[in-house]
Design goal:
With 337 residues, the protein is of the alpha/beta class. It has a domain of 110 residues: Rossmann fold (3-Layer(aba) Sandwich). It is built from 10 helices and 13 strands.
Length: 337
């Protein structure tokens, strides 16, 4: 594991075309990062709608290196910057490299299989960006539920409510728990303004770019999209950031919604080592040796577990100043919410 909090892999081979002009419709203090998943034939309509929505800059991270339509698209939309990876990359890497190419302080991350229309972000949603301006001591939802926080938190993401193509509300509000010694996530439907969530479902939301960089972005070494996303979310809560939600921020899928593969694999164990084992006592973070045996037994690879545990211990200790509390405190906090 890298000993630096910046997890971005800058060695990814990629080609960047376009983006030579400013968006002539730019009117909002926010950029958009469009992630390619579907290879949509409606890309021209999507880009046109994003332009006319007034985004400060538009960056499209492509999934396929051989997309012969990109040259034509870059000529038709000279304000759009296209990032074309020349090697296979995961979703976290797509966002990490895309964030570096966007302008401004806030970035709307969205997939190309979402229904994109002009004014996709309402004035009410844009007014929520003021929440990024100062640390929060608590959240109060519209049902007057107060969510007290042990430390002032830096808002990292505003997350949307998501709908199926048939307008059915989807459970995207994530809460952590422990089940039979394994970390699990419970998903429920978003009901109230300023509800909190453990991670950004399907990676989508409006990100504070400064705080994203402070966080080090997504861990590119996690091959599972699900655990990569959950790791980013839990690490943000451990490090003093917060992810909050707004029912008014509505996005709908064009077709089948994305599914999450929650299988326990090597990515889960890397996530577990970095985020579940560290302990915080009176503001000091530690990495207890007694956690090794349960980890080794659960992972099922004793000899492989030894170097992994040592490496994780080194990584956590090198970032000890960033951990504000441990997972047990997060779990207790969520249970009281």
């Amino acid at each position: 594991m890298s000993t630096t909090p910046i997890i971005f892999n800058t060695e990814i081979a990629r080609t960047i075309i376009g983006g030579s002009e400013k968006n002539p419709y730019a009117s909002k203090p926010i950029s958009v990062l469009l992630l390619s998943r579907s290879g949509s034939h409606f890309k021209p309509q999507i880009l046109d709608a994003l332009m006319k929505s007034g985004f400060q800059s538009i960056v499209s991270v492509e999934k396929f290196s051989k997309n012969y339509a990109l040259d034509e698209l870059s000529r038709r939309f000279p304000c759009v910057r296209f990032i074309i990876p020349q090697e296979e990359i995961n979703i976290g890497q797509m966002i990490n490299i895309g964030m570096k190419e966007t302008e401004g302080e806030t970035v709307f991350v969205v997939w190309d299989d979402i229904k994109i229309r002009e004014n996709i972000l309402s004035d009410f949603v844009l007014s929520k960006l003021s929440l990024f301006e100062k640390p929060l001591d608590d959240f109060t939802t519209s049902d007057n539920t107060e969510c007290k926080i042990e430390i002032p938190r830096k808002p990292l993401c505003l997350l949307p409510s998501l709908y199926s193509a048939s307008s059915q509300v989807l459970p995207v509000k994530a809460s952590p728990s422990i089940d039979d010694a394994y970390f699990t996530v419970t998903l429920s439907k978003l009901l109230y303004e300023h509800s909190i969530s453990l991670y950004p479902y399907d990676f989508m939301g409006i990100y504070n770019k400064k705080h994203f960089f402070e966080m080090g972005g997504f861990d590119s070494e996690l091959s599972s999209p699900y655990w990569q996303n959950v790791e980013f979310g839990l690490r943000s809560w451990l490090w003093g950031y917060a992810l909050f939600m707004s029912p008014a921020f509505r996005l709908s899928y064009e077709g089948e919604r994305a599914t999450e593969d929650m299988s326990i694999d090597d990515s889960y164990y890397r996530f577990y080592l970095k985020n579940i084992i560290p302990r915080c006592d009176k503001g000091k973070i530690s990495y207890p040796k007694k956690a090794f045996l349960p980890y080794a037994i659960h992972s099922g690879h004793f000899f492989k577990a030894i170097p992994a545990f040592r490496e994780a211990k080194k990584w956590v200790e090198s970032h000890s100043d960033k951990y504000k509390l441990d997972f047990n405190a997060i779990l207790a906090f969520w249970k009281s919410y």
